[in-house]
Amino acid sequence: MADEERDLIEILEENNPIDINKYISYVRSPKCGAIATFAGTTRDTFEGKEVLELQYEAYVPMAIRCLKSLCSSARSSWDIHLIAVAHCLGTVPVGETSVFVAISSVHRADGLDACKFLIDELKASVPIWKKEVYTNGEVWKENKEFIERMPYLVMASHDQGGACSGKKKVEAHERKSCCGTKVKVNVNDESADSCSLIILSILESSTKDPFPILITQYECQTAE
Which H or E element spans position 168? Predict the structure, then answer.
């Protein structure tokens, strides 16, 4: 069986909660001595504001292609056996799981490192967007991993022709930055050979005064 055929990748429509046991059972194998997992859940506060829920949207065809590419990158870097990745769309209430990663490996170090890589890269480059809903308002939020990656996405679109390859994992894990606010996303025809996103983000300073709008374009090449 080809590696990509062993990767279970699911983007779940609204009102389809993540079944954690399903994905753990999928990756379980008598060949492996470790299963590394990550579950991302909605917390009840952010910077002193009460969070009611998170709402997720995605460009699903591109998200699946990018996740497949990230799984391939993880396999090329670590000795892992089976991978399962699931992400919810729609509303995710406080305490519920929005994203789950499970990886089986012979030894725990490979599974743990690959699991961290996958969730970090998912947050940085996969076209899934999050709105935080508070008691006193709501806002689209960029993950900090994406903000950290933005300058490199510009270079990647020219030098490498893709933002989903997961080639910047070491640098990305070392950089620190803040979150911004997502304004708009436009995508081209999903049937094209490559897909692109135009992402407009307003980066906010600590005083809440916005920096000028930064426009970033990047491409994710599809596999033949």
Answer: none
